[in-house]
Amino acid sequence: MPYKSLSDFVKTLESENELIRIKEYVNPYLEMTDIVDRLTKSGDGKAVLFENTGTPFPVLMNAFGSEKRISLALGNKSLSKIGYDIENLFKKLTQPKSGFFDKIRILPDLGRIASWMPKKIRGRGKCQEVIIDNPDLSQLPVLTCWPFDGGPFITLPCVHTKDLETGNRNVGMYRMQIFEKQLTGMHWHKHKTGARHYNEYKKAGEKMPVVVTLGGDPAYTYSATAPLPDNIDEYLLAGFLRKKRVEMVRCITQDMEVPADVDFVIEGYVDPNEDLIWEGPFGDHTGFYSLADWYPRFHVTCITHRKNAVYPATIVGVPPMEDAWIGKATERIFLAPIKLAILPEIIDYNLPFQGVAHNIVIVKIEKSYAGQAQKVMNALWGAGQMMFNKIMIVVDQNVDIDDYNKLLKVIGDNTNPEQDILFTYGPLDVLDHSSSKFAYGSKMGIDATTKFEEEKNQKIVKVHKRNLAITDELIKGHTNIHNAFIEPHSNILFISVVKESTGQIGEIITQLSKSECLNEIKACIIFEHMVDIYDLNLVTWIGSGNIDPKRDSVLIPSTETSVSKIFIDATRKSKIKGQFERDWPNVVVMDINTIETIDKNWDKYGLGKFIPSPSLKYRKLNQSEGDKVVEH
User: Fold this and answer.
1) Same domain (yes/no): 132, 252
2) What is the CATH number of the domain that holds 505?
């Protein structure tokens, strides 16, 4: 069932006991973030409606922050049901049609698709009940999310652009930093369609109309994040999700259309001939600050909104957060198209929350021939936004890819690092902070499938299986190792060190590669001493975020007494000491003053059982204040 407005969705959340209303004033500057961060990471936190924001508009946050709520937002009881519907429709439309009557039978499905197409209507929409000709963005309750953010950011904008030649619409989601009452940045990355449209207008020397919407049916917000092909209208996907076409109305000051029932419309333009603006930093979904850079200026020409509008916002930071569930929806919804159109051997795939969407993907396949895992890796790295993936793990069909402890054992059992780890190069997400070059670096593929005869290493290594409780021996033998931990039954070793010099990690790897106590170890991942190596979620997030796989890995061949192994340097890289070419960002955490304010007022907000700020756990990962690491 489609939602008529964001307020309509709020009613559904409340009826499902998925909403907390906070009537006390909460400052959009940092305070809302700390409250929602606590609820999100508690595991069962609800959506929050901040009713007293210092503006006429309430703020809805964490609306998508669980499987139940993202399913409700998309009008279904489960994400799997949406994927099942897409798979059935896809099969009907793509299966061979042997005769006239077979072709006739698909007409109802074609009619359904036609009924989901967006439609322009006459007159004004609900979104234009209030028209502000002299717009002022400071009248909206825009959040400043984290202490070292460059300013307040609009975090759930559906940004509408159109192709200069074809007029085709694109709707993307790009954060918007507010600089003045009628000026924001437009943070579209070089790989995104909005940036391509911008370049078209720049070549033509024309101003580019851009319109931003907020709220309305949550299906609109999700569709703006979806990895659709360039020629597919996001409002067709929204129509499919809500099982009703999206009605579009013309904007007041720009020649573009937007859904008639959204809560806010921010109209304006980008002038490609203008100088760019220094935008950021921003506490991002990677869990680190994305550092400041140059982006286009967006000039606001008009703001319209519906009466009783609700302002939607989200925060991102150390995973898991609300955006992880938006990513989970994409994982489930787009599984069928990947299987049916690209790789039929894929059974399932999983994007772990700790992999922040693009660092890790686990792929389960039905394997039938040698080299198939490598074929899947290469195909997926060439498929849409999967091109940003940094670490891809391929396993057999009988592996539970949601049980990460068992998965580690499968990797340890089935992987010979010397031959089953593949390195390649390609584009990376602009937000990846660890690649030596901007948005370009290496990728790692791990073939953890059961090997066919042709894939087996002919060199048989006979190793006496020893008790793997070797941490004391490691620490005593290597004084620069702070701690060591072997993941049970996995042949994977985590160690932490007090890093003091550029070449120290290389020296440690050289020492460890000669250590007989590591003869059975297949992988050793090295962290800094601030990282709790016993916390699998933490080491997965930090480890995948802090590496450029090829640069930071050392492969050691097998010997007569030792298996082959890989050492991975997951420590921070130093720019000043000549080890790295870019600034290294700090982890996103809240400041102590804000944490103490929320602690003090917790009971007043009516939030139930006290939850401490997650930032208290992660603050120790930073050794300096600010958005980036300061070398001493």
Assistant:
1) yes
2) 3.40.1670.10
Q: Say which DSSP state 154 is in.
A: E
Residues 352, 411, single domain; the answer is yes
- The whole-angstrom separation of Cα 613 and Cα 226 is 31
> Number of folded domains in the chain?
3
Q: Residue 321 and residue 38: Cα distance in Å, rounded?
A: 10
**What does the pLDDT read at residue 347?**
95
* pLDDT value, residue 113: 66
What's the CA dihedral at 370, 375, 377, 379 to 10 degrees? Answer: -160
**DSSP for 19-79, written as a single string:** EEEEEEE--TBTHHHHHHHHHHHTSSPPEEEEEE-SSSS-EEESTT-SHHHHHHHTTSS-H
Task: Give the CA angle between residues 149, 152, 153 to the nearest 5°.
Answer: 90
β-pair type (277-279, 247-250):
unpaired
d(CA 219, CA 2): 8
**Helix (H) or strand (E) run with residue 611 in it:** none
Give the pair of three-digit tokens for residue 567: 């050492």
| Alpha carbon distance 134, 40 (integer Å) | 37
Closest to 237 measured CA to CA, from 256, 259, 255, 215: 259
Interatomic CA distance for residues 214 and 160, integer angstroms:
11
Q: Using an 8 Å Cβ cutoff, are 337 and 181 in contact?
A: no
Query: Nearest 5°: CA angle at 416, between 414 and 419?
Result: 125
Q: Which of 253, 292, 333 is nearest to 151 (CA)?
A: 292
Clarify whether 472 is annotated catalytic.
no
Give backbone dihedrals phi and psi of 52, rounded to 5 degrees, phi first: -120, 100
- Whether residue 234 sits in one domain with residue 377: no
pLDDT tens, residue by residue, 535-548? 999 999 999 999 99
Write b or e for each residue in 282-307: b if 16 or more Cβ atoms lie within 10 A of its Cβ, otherwise e.
bbbbbbbbbbbeebbbbbbbbbbbbe
Side-chain-side CA neighbours of residue 97 (13 Å): 12
Containing 146, the helix (H) or strand (E) segment is none
Q: Count the helix, strand and coil residues of the chain and give each as a percent rounded to the nearest 5.
A: 30, 25, 45
Examine the domain organization and report whether 515 and 479 are in the same domain: yes
Q: What is the DSSP letter of 575?
A: T
- CA dist., res. 539 & res. 533, Å (int): 6
Question: What is the per-residue pLDDT for 477?
Answer: 62
Please tell me which residue in 34, 217, 284, 429 is annotated as part of the active site.
Answer: 284
Residue 492 and residue 402 share a domain: no
Distance CA 197, CA 176 (A): 17
> Is the domain of 122 the same as that of 209?
yes
Domain end point (choices 569, 585, 610): 569
pTM of the model: 0.93
Residue 449 CA to residue 359 CA, distance in Å, equals 20
Q: Which residues contact 357 (CB under 8 A, 6 or more apart)?
A: 285, 323, 327, 351
* Range of the structural domain that residue 361 is part of: 322-451
pLDDT band at 270 (very low <50, low <70, confident <90, very high): very high
Domain boundary among 256, 283, 312: 312
DSSP structural state of residue 623:
S
Q: How confident is the model at residue 459 (pLDDT cuts 50, 70, 90)?
A: low
Q: Are residues 238 and 117 in the same domain?
A: yes
**Same domain? 361 vs 401:** yes
Record the tokens describing residue 49, joined without a space. Answer: 């409606």
The residues, ordered by sequence, that sit 6+ positions from 601 with a Cβ below 8 Å of its Cβ are 24
